[in-house]
Amino acid sequence: MRTLFIEDRSEIDRIIRSCKTCYVAMSLNDQPYVLPMNFALDGDVVILHSAMHGRMWDTLKINPRVSINWTLGEEIAWQDVQVGCSYRVKSSSILIEGTVEFVDDYDEKYQCMLKTMGQYSDMPFKFNEPAIKNVGVMKVHIASITGKIFGAKAITPWNKNQ
Known about the structure:
- This protein is α+β, with helices and mostly antiparallel strands.
- The chain has one domain (2-152): Electron Transport, Fmn-binding Protein, Chain A (Pnp Oxidase, Chain A, Roll).
- Helices cover 22% and strands 47% of the residues.
- It has helices spanning 9-18, 55-62, 106-118, 129-133, and strands at 2-6, 22-28, 31-37, 40-42, 45-50, 65-78, 87-103, 136-152.
- Strands 1, 2, 3, 4, 5, 6, 7 and 8 form an eight-stranded antiparallel beta sheet that branches.
- Strand 4 (40-42) and strand 5 (45-50) form a beta hairpin.
- It is globular, with a radius of gyration of 19 Å.
- It starts with a strand and ends in a 10-residue tail after the last strand.
């Protein structure tokens, strides 16, 4: 089984949009911190939201650099059932690195929240004023993006068309 890079951005976006949760990693004073979060993908921006206080908020105000991971698939595969090192989880994984921008403008926050809800439902949504004023919205501007497929079949002359 092989690990292959995903080069096609539309495939990367499909994998991201197929996930319900992303994992946001940040660091302050060499202390890493990772949180599962809801998200929306909007071109080269990942939209996140949270309370406007707490460890994550405080960390990102000081160090806005983050890494975000999405992983799709959890199928166990192996080459030899009796050889432990031949086991692998078949999955696709996307990793981005970027910088957080805090969104303060009410109308922009509203639009970001609509996009976030659009990740999870086709229903139309409305938000009341306190909900928008009291939520922290962040845009992560993507600086780099990498996609990989783990546990892919080796491409050989006898299976290259499968």
